Amino acid sequence: MTRLLTNDDIERLLTMDDCLSALEVAYREHARGITVGSSSRVETVVPTPTPDVSYEFTSIEGAVPAFGVMALRCNSNHMAMRIVNGMKRKDRLPDAPGGRYVGLILIFSLADLRLLGILQDGFISAMRVGATNALAARALARSDAGIVGLIGAGDQARKQLAGLAAVRPLREARVFSPNRERRESFANLMSQEIGLPIRPVDSAREAVRGADILAAATNSFDPVFEAEWIEPGMHVTAILSYEVPPAAYDRADVVVVNNPAGYGRGVAGHYDASADWARYPTLGQLLVGEAPGRADDRQVTFFMNNAGIGFQFAAVGARVLESANAASAGCELPDDLFLQSWHT
Q1: pLDDT for position 89
Q2: What is the CATH number that goes with domain 130-304?
Q3: Which letter, b or e, does each residue of 67-104 get, where b requires 16 or more Cβ atoms within 10 Å of its Cβ?
Q4: Which DSSP string do the residues of 41-70 spell out, in sequence order?
Q5: Is the pLDDT of residue 182 over 90?
Q6: Which helix (H) or strand (E) holds 185?
Q7: Is 2-124+309-337 assigned to CATH 3.30.1780.10?
Q8: In which band, very low, low, confident or very high, does the pLDDT at 259 lie, cut at 50, 70 and 90?
Q9: What are the domain boundaries of the chain?
Q10: Whole-model pTM?
Q11: How many CB atoms lie within 10 A of CB 63?
């Protein structure tokens, strides 16, 4: 049977600890050349009648032999480039029926080829980004890091904070978003969700000053903080290279990236290919001891999550399916719907 799971189903099944453990296996195996999956995301862009809005279909894939699965993640999007509060950003538009989005993860068996699962991708995507940055923070941030300065108040920011709370004994978080209502709502919601005092602040500078961890989680195509704000002993983490000032790399004593290739600009122009990512060690290398981490409490460490990797969806998707099968969650579809006697 093929299991169909919605984001609601997945949110009931997937914990941050589950996500961390699955991704750690995948990254360690990838560093050893076993897990397969690069950042070779395929992007197809189609103009629309609306100025500054394009149709974009994106896909990325990867396999984790330790979990016996292959994953294909794909999205059907309308994307808009806009100026908000004086900063350029790219927004995904809720143009599917009912004001919704379209994103799926297909999980296939490496053993008997079957389609094991069809999973909505929204919750998993945010969780795997948060967990990836948390794995890096666990390896790089000071052991006593307790204050987070968070820039951004969307779904990605929520999972960034949840991930950091899972790996460090946080005492406080400060959050800044240009939208006052958004940052206040974020602070109220996340304070209840993770049991941490969260203070909405009026500027990015106020959020970052005196923090042990600076976390950027925005969709900005312009830097959202200044390199001069980075203080000795701080750990910096970000999910979009554009939101980071180039000088931040030089301020750090240790820089680690998610993938040495990056996405490249591709045809959609989502991601910055200007940095020489290959000069830095990867998260997988850090986790298996092939790259140095923090040497003392005054060093600045920096993890740039410069590109998602296809095997992330295989690892987390496999863990979700394991839990879903045990709980009989979601819907089951007959295998015969997806099997054919023709070869292609």
Answers
A1: 75
A2: 3.40.50.720
A3: bbbbbbbbbebbbbeeeeeebebbeeeebeeeeebebe
A4: -EEEEEE-SSTTEEEEEEEEEEEETTTTEE
A5: yes
A6: helix 180-194
A7: yes
A8: confident
A9: 2-124+309-337, 130-304
A10: 0.91
A11: 21
